[in-house]
Amino acid sequence: MADRDLIARLAFGSMAAQTVRAAVRLRVVELVGDTPRRAAAVAADAGAEPQAMARLVRALAGLGLLTEHAPDTFSVTSAGALLDPGHPESLTSFVRMFTEPAIIRAWEHLDGSVRTGEVAFDGVFGTDFFTHLAQHPDLSAQFNAAMSQAVAETAAVLPYAFDFERFTSVTDVGGGDGTLLSAVLGAHPQLTGVVFDTEQGLAGAPKTLERHGLADRCSVRSGDFFRSVPEGSDVYLMKSVLHDWSDEQAVTILTHCREVLPPGGIVLIVEPVLPESVGTTAEDHASDAGITCLSDLNMLVNLGGRERTREDFAEVCGRAGLSLTSVTPLVDAVPFSLIEAVAD
């Protein structure tokens, strides 16, 4: 029975994701609020059909996002609260992006990508993922917001997971809106910084730096890390960058960091690290390793990149003239690890 239940849950997985997407689009968690509410009242505020809303909120309770206190009366769980855009740890933009048709459609061709090793997204949309984002500003803004929410947990941990005190400047390569670097600079007043990304990736960075009072300590630089990265820092930081790209492209990015790395400098890579084995039990498959494996397939179908093992990271670093010195799991920002590399 347990085996059949596992298969059923997995087969219904895409439906669960779309249930969460509908909850975000209909603002269900916001409308339920802080006190239990009847489904009919939520439906009225959402402009939805009452019986259909009752079915939706019941499903959300079944998924652990709401609690049904009495028949047809619901409140928000701690997990469900993360679907409120006003929550300080909100994941609404993350949910919107990763249930977005632009992400999901290529997954319909996963079997083809497995057969050929080719990216499915390019064939479905006629261009690569990041070019598609650049051509659709609203989607690009949604992606940037999702990445900002996704980095928040790491931003709370990283400043204290590494000895930044012995350095003077950090360049965040592919740093997006500057959320991660703002946290590092905020915790280490001796540092200055550079957020480096494409123009569309940097769209929110000036506001982020201004909001944290860092505009005078951190500059914003646009460019292409396949051509070069800014020189002048002794720490080059990358979070969730290398997994977007093939090994050859990852080596190019790392090589450009190595070319500007001063004596005593360091490259910090923050990414999930695949274990050598993910186990064989249902519990193992539901673990963080299982999520990382799904992310690996997402890289295959949508971007052409991959998640990597420690050995894989050592190899791409070595090809770029860097030596991997340590891999430290960020236990409060699972599934990410801090990977340190220095010049050979």
Automatic annotation (TrEMBL):
The keyword Transport does not apply. GO terms for molecular function: O-methyltransferase activity; protein dimerization activity. The active site is at 243 (proton acceptor). InterPro entries: COMT-like, COMT_C, COMT_dimerisation, SAM-dependent_MTases_sf, WH-like_DNA-bd_sf, WH_DNA-bd_sf. Gene3D superfamilies: 1.10.287.1350, Vaccinia Virus protein VP39, Winged helix-like DNA-binding domain superfamily/Winged helix DNA-binding domain. Keywords: Methyltransferase, S-adenosyl-L-methionine, Transferase. Pfam families: Dimerisation, Methyltransf_2. Residues 107-322 form the O-methyltransferase C-terminal domain. The keyword S-adenosyl-L-methionine applies. Residues 9-82 form the O-methyltransferase dimerisation domain. One of its GO terms (biological process) is methylation. PANTHER family: O-METHYLTRANSFERASE CICE, PUTATIVE (AFU_ORTHOLOGUE AFUA_4G14580)-RELATED. This is Methyltransferase. The lineage of its organism: Bacteria, Bacillati, Actinomycetota, Actinomycetes, Kitasatosporales.
